[in-house]
């Protein structure tokens, strides 16, 4: 992870280097100024899939557009392949899929690829060859001669992705790439992104679908009100925290709630007729002692899950904490609210 | 160069897809076809003996001053004057209606070009903003030039064939109309880029055209004004495009007379140039 970068020489291992980037939108006559990005520093490493997360209005799209030269920064700098982002030549090896992109709907997929291939300064024969392959790969082979006005949203999204890959980019910026795509299509896109990563391409992904980000991203950054509030690997963020979620069944009607209450523990009802509780234990011995005790009392163990959070849970937790601290709420109140399913047994608490 | 050509091609395709080019082409074709089939002339010794429009007999007379008595008399319309009159009417109409129609027709194109989701995709390509905007403008210019050439050229051929009088100077209307369209289109581009409001840009461009009609009457209006009013009026006259006065230049060129003043055309071109420069600066600096 690189938070600090030195401007100057281009490091091929880091195609994207952002240093103290800031963007403030000036309102009319200097009124209504909005700060979208504040002192943001980040570098993206070659071959990684970097996920940019954040609530609405956090500055994700502003950051993406700033990196593509669509928006001009008001502070700091950003370089792509060692060149300032305002320089068109740095976009030679970039692919971009914007959110809610609009292609001229009177064109066919093939014509769209040719048009944008020309604008990207790619030789026509290369465009034709790649178009054939990309449209086939993204499931649009049969539709290549159909006008885009007859395309569904998912098809448009796949065409957008094909267009972004037309120049065989080394760096890909994707803003909500699976928006409007059906589950099968999402899976195809996910597989394609993993395949591209294996080819050594760097992917900068902006998505609200955190389950997908969790599946494919190697590293994520969380933006909140224009600031990078978290930067790290997905594994670090979702790692198990020494707690286990134990799901049990009681064939003889014994209530787990009562059983746990006797031991000053609480139980979380489950809507499938099972009973679940979360045990905090830093050791396997502690976990096994609980399992033995439960089995000894006639309970059947259905499952034991390491109690790590999903990316979505961690994301919501982080954002709610930040929102709470903004509105001067106490962290304990927020912790209680953001993690309602967590039981509170003491660390390494053993069954009586 | 490939990128510039790509930008022009995209504009062409869009104009074609929006049926704008096709519509203007059909209107143009109807105009010269009507002229070619509806107009029948009988010419006797350089004068028009009979004129039939859609089969209806007309009495083609003109008022001229008798060189001996100095009185106004009516005589048979000469062929030269007939050709002059028809061409000037057609070219004057093409100038006014062609420009208004052209602006109206290209307005959705500017709006589409600056649309969110479209412009950011275009700007993410390795093409400079100046080249991208220039390609878009050039595409519109080229389309208008082709259509104007087709209209003026076809009508000139029809009239010349029917009368046997070939006056190439009438073809000067093609560059003048095209240039003046480019001047007025600069207002659309400037306000389109600055505000992203196609309606506002259209109102501003139409406003300039209609205001130029008032400015053209400066010899009658200025003496009636106070010193301050005179200053304001004349400043506007020199700053804004003199769209209506250019009609006079076209008429003088068509009749073979010396052009009294090129000023209206030159000041209009300068106005357009400044508008385009401002539009490029704004387009270069703004966030999309």
Spatial separation of the terminal alpha carbons of chain A: 45 Å
Query: H/E series of chain B, N to C?
Result: HHEEEEEHHHHHHHHH
Number of separate domains of chain A = 2
Helix content of chain B: over 70%
Which key terms come to mind for this protein?
heterodimer; A: 352 residues; alpha/beta; 2 domains; 4-stranded antiparallel sheet; 11 helices; 14 strands; 33% helix; B: 288 residues; 3-stranded antiparallel sheet; 9% strand; flat
Write the layout of secondary structure elements.
The complex is a heterodimer of chains A (352) and B (288).
Chain A: E1 16-25, E2 34-44, E3 49-53, H1 60-67, E4 75-80, E5 83-84, E6 94-97, H2 109-119, H3 124-137, H4 153-164, E7 171-175, H5 183-198, E8 202-206, H6 210-216, E9 219-224, E10 227-233, H7 234-238, E11 243-249, H8 256-261, E12 268-269, E13 275-280, H9 284-296, E14 300-306, H10 311-326, H11 331-338
Parallel strand pairs in A: 3-8, 3-9, 6-7, 7-8
Antiparallel strand pairs in A: 1-2, 1-4, 4-5, 9-10, 11-13, 11-14, 12-13
Chain B: H1 2-17, H2 20-38, E1 39-44, E2 47-53, E3 56-58, E4 61-65, E5 72-76, H3 79-113, H4 119-123, H5 129-163, H6 173-195, H7 198-215, H8 218-221, H9 227-239, H10 245-255, H11 263-285
Antiparallel strand pairs in B: 1-2, 2-3, 4-5
What does this protein look like?
Chain A contains eleven helices and 14 strands. By secondary structure, chain A is of the alpha/beta class. Chain A starts with 15 loop residues before the first strand and ends in a 14-residue tail after the last helix. Chain B is mainly alpha-helical and 288 residues long. Chain B has one domain (2-38, 78-285). In chain B, 70% of the residues lie in helices and 9% in strands. In chain B, the strands form two sheets. Chain B has a three-stranded antiparallel sheet with strand order 1-2-3. The A-B interface holds A 25, 65, 68-72, 88-92, 94, 96, 98-104, 106-107, 111, 115-116, 118-121, 173 and B 2-3, 5-7, 9-10, 13-14, 17-18, 112, 115-128, 132, 285, 287-288.
């Amino acid at each position: 992870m690189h938070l600090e970068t030195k401007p100057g020489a281009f490091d091929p291992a880091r195609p994207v280097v952002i240093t103290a980037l800031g963007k403030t939108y000036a309102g009319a006559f200097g009124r209504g100024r909005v700060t979208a990005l504040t002192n943001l520093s980040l570098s993206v490493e070659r071959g990684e899939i970097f996920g940019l997360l954040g609530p609405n209005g956090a500055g994700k799209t502003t950051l993406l557009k700033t990196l593509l030269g669509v928006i001009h920064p008001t502070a700091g700098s950003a370089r792509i392949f060692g060149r300032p982002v305002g320089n068109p030549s740095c976009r030679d090896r970039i692919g971009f899929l914007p959110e809610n992109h609009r292609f001229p709907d009177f064109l066919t997929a093939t014509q769209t690829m040719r048009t944008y291939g020309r604008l990207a300064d790619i030789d026509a024969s290369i465009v034709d060859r790649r178009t054939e392959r990309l449209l086939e790969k993204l499931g649009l082979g049969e539709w290549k001669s159909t006008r885009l006005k007859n395309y569904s949203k998912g098809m448009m999204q796949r065409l957008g992705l094909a267009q972004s890959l037309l120049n065989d980019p080394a760096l890909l910026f994707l803003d909500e790439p699976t928006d409007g795509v059906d589950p099968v299509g999402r899976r195809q896109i996910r597989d394609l992104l993993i395949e591209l990563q294996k080819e050594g391409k760097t992917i900068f992904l902006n998505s609200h679908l955190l389950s997908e980000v969790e599946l494919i991203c190697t590293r994520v950054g969380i933006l909140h009100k224009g600031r990078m509030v978290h930067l790290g690997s997905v594994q670090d963020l979702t790692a198990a925290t020494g707690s286990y979620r134990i799901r049990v069944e009681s064939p003889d009607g014994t209530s787990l709630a009562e059983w746990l209450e006797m031991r000053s523990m609480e139980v979380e009802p489950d809507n499938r007729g099972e009973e679940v509780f979360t045990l905090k234990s830093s050791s396997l011995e502690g976990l096994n002692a609980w399992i033995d005790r439960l089995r000894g009392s006639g309970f059947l163990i259905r499952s034991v899950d390491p109690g790590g959070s999903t990316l979505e849970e961690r994301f919501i937790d982080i954002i709610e904490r930040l929102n709470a601290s903004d509105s001067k709420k106490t962290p304990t109140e927020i912790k209680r609210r953001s993690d309602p399913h967590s039981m509170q047994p003491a660390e390494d608490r053993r069954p009586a | 160069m490939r990128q510039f050509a790509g930008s022009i091609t995209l504009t062409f395709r869009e104009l074609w897809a929006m049926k704008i080019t096709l519509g203007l082409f059909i209107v143009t074709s109807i105009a010269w076809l009507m002229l070619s089939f509806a107009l029948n002339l009988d010419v006797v010794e350089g004068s028009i003996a009979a004129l039939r429009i859609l089969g209806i007999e007309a009495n083609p007379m003109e008022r001229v001053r008798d060189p001996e008595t100095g009185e106004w008399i009516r005589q048979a319309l000469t062929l030269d004057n007939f050709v002059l009159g028809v061409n000037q009417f057609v070219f004057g109409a093409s100038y006014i209606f062609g420009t208004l129609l052209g602006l109206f027709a290209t307005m959705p194109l500017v709006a589409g070009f600056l649309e969110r989701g479209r412009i950011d995709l275009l700007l993410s390509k390795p093409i400079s903003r100046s080249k991208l905007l220039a390609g878009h403008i050039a595409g519109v210019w080229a389309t208008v030039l082709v259509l104007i050439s087709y209209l003026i050229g076809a009508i000139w051929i029809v009239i010349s064939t029917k009368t046997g009088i070939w006056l190439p100077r009438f073809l000067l209307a093609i560059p003048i109309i095209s240039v003046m369209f480019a001047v007025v289109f600069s207002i659309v581009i400037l306000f389109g880029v600055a505000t992203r409001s196609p309606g506002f840009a259209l109102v501003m461009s139409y406003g300039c055209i209609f205001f130029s009609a008032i400015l053209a009457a400066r010899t009658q209006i200025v003496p009636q004004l106070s010193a301050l009013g005179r200053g304001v009026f004349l400043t506007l006259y020199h700053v804004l495009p003199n769209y209506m006065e250019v009609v006079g230049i076209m008429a003088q060129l068509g009749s073979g007379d010396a052009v009294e003043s090129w000023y209206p055309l030159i000041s209009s071109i300068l106005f357009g140039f400044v508008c385009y420069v401002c539009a490029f600066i704004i387009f270069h600096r703004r966030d999309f």
